[in-house]
Design goal:
Elements (H helix, E strand, L loop, with lengths): L1 E2 L3 H10 L2 E7 L4 H14 L5 E7 L4 H6 L7 E6 L2 E7 L4 H14 L1
Parallel strand pairs: 1-3, 2-3
Antiparallel strand pairs: 2-4, 4-5
């Protein structure tokens, strides 16, 4: 999974990608690396889904602007609109099911 570079890249991706998955991570978050690894593996088979990782330490303003206050947090944008937000303790398999359901509707 590629790292998000800056706000400008985020703006372009939100407005151009059919589905964008943002994985907000922290260096002190133990589950974050496992989530990132599983999302990356799953995303390889998904041509219509773009994934980016965002470090809340490296991009605090971006995280704050999106109301991200803890990691792990995953945001899913579909056709430019925030459609799914999961934070803290959540089921990764259920999140993936939601994203796949969303993909089938678009």
């Amino acid at each position: 999974m590629q790292e998000l570079k800056n706000q400008e890249e985020l703006d372009v991706l939100i407005n151009s990608e059919k589905i964008l998955v943002l994985d907000f991570t922290s260096k002190t978050c133990a589950p974050c690396s496992a989530i990132k690894e599983k999302l990356t593996s799953w995303g390889r088979a998904k041509a219509g889904i773009t994934l980016r990782s965002v470090s809340i330490e490296e991009h605090p303003k971006l995280a704050a602007d999106l109301e991200i206050f803890s990691a792990p947090t995953v945001l899913v944008f579909a056709e430019g609109k925030l459609t799914i937000k999961e934070a803290g303790y959540f089921s990764l398999s259920q999140l993936i099911e939601k994203i796949e359901r969303l993909e089938s509707l678009l």
